[in-house]
TrEMBL record:
<dbReference type="Pfam" id="PF10502">
    <property type="entry name" value="Peptidase_S26"/>
</dbReference>
<keyword id="KW-1133">Transmembrane helix</keyword>
<feature type="region of interest" description="Disordered">
    <location>
        <begin position="1"/>
        <end position="22"/>
    </location>
</feature>
<dbReference type="GO" id="GO:0005886">
    <property type="term" value="C:plasma membrane"/>
</dbReference>
<dbReference type="GO" id="GO:0004252">
    <property type="term" value="F:serine-type endopeptidase activity"/>
</dbReference>
<keyword id="KW-0645">Protease</keyword>
<dbReference type="GO" id="GO:0009003">
    <property type="term" value="F:signal peptidase activity"/>
</dbReference>
<feature type="transmembrane region" description="Helical">
    <location>
        <begin position="30"/>
        <end position="51"/>
    </location>
</feature>
<feature type="compositionally biased region" description="Basic residues">
    <location>
        <begin position="9"/>
        <end position="22"/>
    </location>
</feature>
<dbReference type="GO" id="GO:0006465">
    <property type="term" value="P:signal peptide processing"/>
</dbReference>
<keyword id="KW-0472">Membrane</keyword>
<dbReference type="InterPro" id="IPR019758">
    <property type="entry name" value="Pept_S26A_signal_pept_1_CS"/>
</dbReference>
<feature type="domain" description="Peptidase S26">
    <location>
        <begin position="35"/>
        <end position="231"/>
    </location>
</feature>
<comment type="similarity">
    <text>Belongs to the peptidase S26 family.</text>
</comment>
<dbReference type="InterPro" id="IPR000223">
    <property type="entry name" value="Pept_S26A_signal_pept_1"/>
</dbReference>
<dbReference type="InterPro" id="IPR019533">
    <property type="entry name" value="Peptidase_S26"/>
</dbReference>
<keyword id="KW-0378">Hydrolase</keyword>
Length: 254
């Protein structure tokens, strides 16, 4: 009986010990799970921040100057590798910082701390673009050294003597000239000539000659090239740079 009683007691003690250690193990598992979630969140936040800083960034369209290519409140994704590591091409749709005097002063929007914090976090990872109103988006027409003239007898613009047939341009009904006003410019070094696709409703390089930059956009003000319309989903599409339009254009003298 004694020999049988001892193992029975050990089994009970063993069972009791496991019962006591069970909740502790479960609590540890929950803590480890929470820790892993926090680590995943921080890593995801860091990756998103790096992508937004160096690769891709989101902007929304605040005006109709690029219609019908882009509509008001469209959201776009911008490739920030261009022009850092990729050359700018004629026809590219580019986002750039105001060279000075292109935009009217913007009112500071007051936000409560909670909304401001959420907006800051979304902006940090590239999901929000609170500074969209401080940037512009236009199409590159002239590169450094290019001679851009408008308009010929057919109402076309020419670059380095080559007339352009521009399918992306939106004109008012009855209009035949791709620009309401004539111009004749040579693009200086490290600058661009930028125009909106909605030619009769775009305050672009043509109408900023009185600003410090004389209407030219410094290349170092370019944020990147617009790649895709990301929202609304019904308008999701890649943005065309229309290489055939500029294929015959030779480089200008720099």
């Amino acid at each position: 009986m004694t020999e049988e009683a001892v193992p029975t007691r050990r089994i009970r003690l063993g069972s009791h010990s496991r019962a006591r250690s069970g909740p502790k193990t479960k609590k540890q598992s929950v803590l480890l799970f929470v820790r892993d979630l926090i680590i995943i969140f921080i890593v995801a936040l860091l990756i998103s921040f790096l992508i937004k800083t160096f690769l891709v960034r989101s902007f929304y369209i605040p005006s109709g100057s690029m219609e019908n290519t882009l509509q008001v409140y469209d959201r776009i994704l911008v490739n920030q590798l261009e022009p850092r590591f990729m050359p700018i091409k004629r026809g590219d749709v580019m986002v750039f910082r105001d060279p000075g005097g292109w935009l009217s002063p913007q009112e500071v929007v007051q936000q409560n701390p909670l909304v401001a914090s959420a907006d800051w976090l979304m902006a940090a990872v590239g999901l929000s673009a609170p500074d969209s109103n401080d940037h512009l988006i236009k199409r590159v027409i002239g590169l450094p050294g290019d001679h851009v003239v408008c308009c010929n007898a057919l109402g076309q613009m020419s670059v380095n003597g080559v007339p352009l047939s521009e399918p992306y341009v939106l004109l008012p009904q009855g209009a035949t000239m791709v620009s309401q006003d004539d111009f004749d410019v040579v693009i200086p070094a490290n600058s661009l000539w930028m125009m909106g696709d909605n030619r009769y409703n775009s305050k672009d390089s043509r109408y900023n000659g009185e600003t410090p930059g004389k209407g030219f956009v410094p290349i170092d003000h370019v944020v990147g090239r617009a790649l895709v319309i990301s929202w609304p989903l019904a308008r999701w599409s890649w943005l065309d740079d229309y290489p055939d339009v500029f294929r015959s254009v030779k480089d200008g003298a720099q």
